[in-house]
Description:
5-stranded antiparallel β-sheet; N-acetyltransferase
Amino acid sequence: xxxxxxxxxxxxxxxxxxxxxxxxxxxxxxxxxxxxxxxxxxxxxxxxxxxxxxxxxxxxxxxxxxxxxxxxxxxxxxxxxxxxxxxxxxxxxxxxxxxxxxxxxxxxxxxxxxxxxxxxxxxxxxxxxxxxxxxxxxxxxxxxxxxxxxxxxxxxxxxxxxxxxxxxxxxxxxxxxxxxxx
Length: 182
């Protein structure tokens, strides 16, 4: 467990922070679960998880947002990530800022993804003055689409994800967005 908690912001039950090196092992455990990674083309290796954490640390340093490491406030337990990240793959809606989440399976169905995503939208709109935030998911990922709806996002379109064109199961994706209400 992390002993020093430097939360950038919190929600009712969750703390959002930049990544620390001790998170790599715990995130690698989340990433190794085939149920967590069901709607991704592959399970990341430990080295890929480490590189992801380093990218998030750099992005936070540069932009003051990332897919934040998330802890349960009451216990300090790391549960995965929820946050904002740049997307720049080839499409008609990039570059853009994406909201996403990946939580350990034992923390599913507790409302954490929805609660955390709402807090990240608030941070993105009120603190960072972002104009628009998008989210994408394979069409078959009904759980993530449900979170998108619960946090007030609107479906824009279906699209073939350029990074998933070789994966017939995952390439048909949904694009949702939400505009800064302020």
